[in-house]
Model the fold of this input.
Amino acid sequence: MIYADKISFNRGDEERLETIVRINLHSDGGEGISGWYPKETINDWLHRNPYTIEVDIAPNPKLVPVDHPVKGTVPCQGNT
Done:
């Protein structure tokens, strides 16, 4: 499984999800994923591989891609 455990925002604008710049990912399996990735790269990945990244904070919602108002990701409310 791939986990998102940190996010970085534009400096001085940490209140809005639209200002997320990068997301730190790590994996506990053989995916070999570790490090900071641009939110647009993660968005593209999630369009091709839905529900494959979880937030590493309980209740561990899955990330889903969003394309409006900006390209990025948000936690899935239903944890599908």
